[in-house]
Design brief:
heterodimer; A: alpha/beta; Rossmann fold; 2 domains; 7-stranded mixed β-sheet; globular; B: alpha/beta; 5-stranded parallel β-sheet; two-stranded antiparallel sheet; 11% strand
């Protein structure tokens, strides 16, 4: 995903001389081409995220289109007040790229992995929250965010994530993308966990459970027409995310459901727990621990219908 | 009271003489004291300490700005990073023709655009939102770099407080600006030696402030922040020829202009009653 980001930025900057990258001292060699082509429009702001965010605001006030880039643990929670005041209150077109959302950096521990960012960022007025599911959607997200007139947060993974889209999808901010069709259950998901959800879909199919899978690259604003349709059609809806169950995607769906749906629908949520992990662990192990591996997702969804999950 | 009637649309011409500027400073102070009283607004002491800084900038020919074209791409930018001194900012912007003086009466009233802390886009002449300390210098740095990228030779003036130098983000910006060789950025520190609850030099190890900024790579100067001639002299020489950003430490007195407010930190939060307004204006020679 990060390579897709770097390549897309080089393309965008060629076409639009307002585009500028502010990096928090990461991306060694990744931006070599960008820096060579646009030396004045790449600034390593050092390990100083608060200044970087406010600086981006100043650049945007003067007509530039800044993209902030560092680990999402650092360019969201550490400088949250600068984001709230300088980007959102001033409603400026600054894009925050959060590298390593969710459990991507689980091996580095809770200082580097983060499962609270969506909850924080979506609470901010005027903030748009995007969670692309593969490298193709990363490119789409960046292109669309440049057309958007306000702050945007784009949560991405790291590298070598499976590519889901063989062709560029019809991607617009606020539009969900249906990837699989089924009748028993509708699974709503977002961001980096998407490949596991699609694998779980196939496992469920083997167990005769037919699932619709809809990906929400945009968490804020949610695709309301799609939600209306889903909650009118299905009796069971499951949300899945690589984020805390407090305040994330599933919470946003639950808020929508409470406010907008009169029909009784069973809404189930899968995500990370309200805790930190204190031991060494890989991303896949952490996902499995939280029930987000393909098998455990399939087991969880499957047992809603059979009562016995994968043994059914 | 009426504020100053004489306004030249081309403020950069520096049409005022020092005597005029001293008179203007007194009138602005009178306006601020009344605004605080009428609007039930705090931060009077902090607003009074930076009057001459604003008067030197806006009336002393130090800024390339035109109230008739407040959005000009080539204009110098001004950020009141110590946003709690908005009364001074508003009084000067109104008096110099950025918006009608009548609006000053609405300050802090329900529905007014003249909020206690300034908002970007609410009124002409406000280049950034402020109120939370430690943001303005970084935004100013971004603006300065945008000017360099776009080859527009404007300057960015950021007015901070000494207490604001408590914020870590100030020093993040202070380290990055010289590394970026930004020479069109000027920070003016209203060093009135007080912050909300005590002496700024005691709450944090603020001193030696000049040496701090120098060691961070800034061309640093100290001036009497109530001496308009010195301020104009310094401000009109920025950027200097060093290729560095410029820091001006302006030594000021909190509550300047009313003897019973001067250097008394109660006036950080206290709001003058009618008698105190009368007394202050009398001392200012306005009644």
């Amino acid at each position: 995903m990060r390579s897709a980001f770097a390549q897309e930025m080089t393309d965008l900057a060629s076409a639009d001389d307002r585009v500028i990258i502010l990096s928090g001292d990461i991306g060694n060699q990744m931006f070599d081409e960008f820096q060579e082509k646009f030396p004045s429009r790449y600034i390593n702001c050092g390990i100083a995220e608060a200044n970087m965010v406010s600086m981006a605001a100043g650049l945007a006030i003067c007509g530039m289109r800044p993209f902030i880039y560092t680990f999402t643990a650092f360019d969201t929670t550490r400088c949250f007040e600068q984001i709230r005041i300088d980007l959102c209150y001033q409603n400026l077109p600054v894009v925050i790229i959060g590298l390593g959302g969710g459990l991507t950096y689980a091996p580095l521990g809770p200082t580097h992995y983060i499962c609270e960012d969506i909850a924080l960022l979506r609470s901010l007025p005027y903030m748009t929250v995007l969670c692309p599911g593969d490298a193709v959607e990363v490119r789409c997200s960046i292109r669309e965010s440049l057309k958007h007139h306000g702050p945007v947060y784009i949560r991405i993974g790291k590298k070598n994530e499976p590519v889901i889209h063989k062709e560029t999808p019809d991607f617009k901010i606020g539009k969900a993308i249906q990837l699989r069709s089924g009748n028993d259950v509708c699974v709503l998901t977002t961001g980096t966990i998407l490949p596991n959800v699609l694998k779980a879909h196939d496992l469920l199919k083997e167990k005769q459970v037919s699932a619709t899978v809809i990906h929400f690259p945009t968490i804020k604003p949610l695709d309301y027409p799609v939600l209306s349709s889903v909650f009118a059609q299905f009796d069971t809806v499951v949300t899945l995310e690589e984020h805390s169950l407090i305040g994330g995607f599933g919470s946003a769906i639950a808020e929508w459901y409470v406010d907008n749906c009169d029909r009784k629908v069973r809404l189930l949520r899968l995500g990370t727990k309200d805790e930190f992990i204190y031991t060494s662990i890989s991303q896949n192990e952490a996902r499995d621990y939280y029930g987000l591996s393909p098998q455990k997702i399939a087991d969880f969804v499957g047992k809603q219908f059979t009562g016995s999950g994968s043994e059914s | 009271m009426g504020v100053i009637g004489v306004v030249d649309s081309n403020l950069s011409s520096g049409i005022y003489k020092n005597k005029d500027l001293s008179e203007i400073s007194r009138m602005i102070r009178g306006e601020i004291v009344e605004m605080s009283h009428n609007a039930d607004a705090m931060h009077l002491g902090s607003s009074l300490s930076c009057v001459e800084i604003f008067v030197a900038l806006y009336y002393g020919g130090c800024l390339n700005i035109d109230p008739k074209n407040p959005g000009a791409a080539t204009r110098d930018r001004v950020i009141l990073s110590k946003g709690h001194a908005s009364m001074t900012f508003y009084a000067v912007l109104a008096d110099t023709g950025f918006f009608p003086k009548d609006l000053l009466k609405t300050f802090n009233k329900t529905g007014s655009k003249l909020t206690e802390h300034p908002n970007l886009g609410a009124l002409p002449g406000i280049d950034a939102t402020s109120g939370s300390l430690g943001h303005g210098l970084s935004m100013g740095l971004g603006m300065a770099i945008a000017g360099r990228i776009n080859h527009i030779p404007y300057r960015v003036f950021v007015i901070m407080s000494d207490g604001e130098c408590n914020e870590g983000s100030v020093w993040e910006a202070a380290m990055l600006a010289p590394a970026q060789k930004v020479d069109n950025l000027v920070v003016i520190i209203d060093f009135n030696r007080w912050q909300a609850t005590g002496r700024s030099e005691e709450i944090m190890a603020l001193n030696p402030l000049k040496e701090k900024w120098e060691s961070f790579g800034w061309s640093t100067y100290e001036v009497d922040g109530h001496d308009i001639s010195s301020l104009i002299n310094q401000l009109s020489r920025t950027p200097d020829s060093s290729g560095k950003p410029v820091a001006i430490i302006a030594h000021t007195v909190k509550g300047k202009g009313a003897s019973f407010m001067e250097d008394d930190n109660n006036w950080h939060y206290r709001i003058p009653n009618a008698d105190e307004v009368k007394k202050a204006k009398h001392e200012l020679g306005l009644s």
